[in-house]
Design goal:
Layout: H1 11-19, H2 25-35, E1 38-39, H3 40-51, H4 57-69, E2 73-78, E3 81-86, H5 88-108
Helix pairs in contact: 2-3, 2-5, 3-4
Length: 109
């Protein structure tokens, strides 16, 4: 569950939400790209709609840049727009992250 912008909670929970959303933006980026290639602006809006938080413009571009540098994302210019897609390595690291979260959720039950 991702806390929405207007939800409140204890300080530890707000910190947990921040650490698992804004600070782990790469997971959400890869999950969106798993469905289809998109450009950075659309990606931000898709993250907000699907996961309930909107990353900053600079954050989204920085994460995309770093993911591309690490081989998890590819970019392709189409006119004035650059679309980003997930690579097989990106799919693998996303699966690894999902397994980690599932394991942690099981431990906390």
């Amino acid at each position: 569950m991702v806390a929405r912008k207007n939800e409140t909670g204890s300080t530890p929970v707000r910190r947990l939400v921040s650490l698992n959303t804004y600070d782990c933006l790469w997971i959400y980026v890869l999950r969106i790209l798993l469905d289809a290639p998109v450009h950075a602006y659309a990606l931000r809006k898709m993250i907000e709609k699907r996961f309930g938080f909107e990353p900053g413009m600079v954050s989204a571009y920085k994460v995309l840049y770093l993911l591309e540098q690490d081989g998890y994302v590819t970019s392709k210019e189409q006119g004035r727009v650059t679309n980003y897609g997930i690579t097989p390595a990106g799919k693998k690291v996303l699966l690894d992250a999902r397994k980690f979260y599932e394991k942690q959720a099981g431990i906390l039950k």
